[in-house]
Design brief:
about 0% strand, mainly alpha
């Protein structure tokens, strides 16, 4: 399975970078969201800056990631790759993990500038330990959104109204991840000491990890049927 994963990962990565618009447009979309929010509301009051920072990061991350995930299987659909995979001795789990890894790389490229620009607009400066913890929680959220999004993208690939159906399924199901990410992120960024917020943070991290395990397990178990279904 690992050899299949490596081959599929390289091919998926090539397919993504073959169309630069697929790589650049989610990042630009996230930046536009941050700029619009910043110029609309202006610089927040000092006591609201941590909350505004967390909200901007997760808003841009959610919307930009959803845009990328909704089109996750467009190259395979256009090339009729799934029709070929039905007859090929390829593990569906390897296909799912290869696509998920590429999606996580895209999410990381969206996350890094989103954190930097949001911190600039909100006037937030985090010490290294808090920045590392906040980034880790955001990456955990990206992983969960990726597992959920790849599964839903395969499920709605052949639906006539998939551009409408995908967000209708994606946004409600992603609520636990967003709650865990925003609440845990707010506890990390808040002026209180990390020790005082440690219990709250660990609880939300547990919720996020549980959602990740559920979405990843369901994705691996269901992906084979989703790919091979007519």
């Amino acid at each position: 399975m690992m050899n299949q994963f490596r081959i599929l990962f390289r091919q998926t990565l090539k397919a993504e970078f073959a169309d630069r618009e697929r790589v650049i447009s989610p990042i630009l979309f996230a930046m536009v969201i941050l700029v619009v929010v910043a110029f609309t509301f202006g610089e927040p009051a000092p006591e609201l800056r941590p909350a505004a920072f967390v909200a901007q990061v997760f808003l841009s991350l959610l919307l930009a990631t959803q845009t990328a995930l909704a089109r996750a299987f467009d190259p395979e659909h256009q090339d009729r790759a799934f029709d070929l995979l039905r007859a090929a001795p390829v593990s569906p789990g390897a296909i799912f993990l290869a696509k998920l890894t590429v999606v996580l790389m895209q999410g990381a490229t969206i996350l890094v500038p989103s954190i930097a620009i949001s911190a600039l607009f909100c006037g937030v400066s985090l010490p290294p330990d808090r920045l590392f913890a906040f980034t880790g929680l955001c990456l955990l959220t990206v992983a969960g959104l990726g597992s959920l999004g790849v599964t839903l993208a395969a499920m709605t690939l052949k639906a006539h109204a998939r551009t409408v159906l995908f967000p209708l399924l994606f946004f409600p199901l992603s609520t636990p991840l967003l709650l865990a990410g925003t609440q845990g992120g707010a506890a990390i960024v808040a002026p209180e000491t990390m020790v005082a917020a440690a219990t709250m943070i660990s609880g939300w991290v547990t919720v996020s990890m549980s959602a990740n395990v559920i979405f990843l397990t369901l994705g691996i178990l269901l992906f084979g049927e989703l790919v091979k279904s007519d």
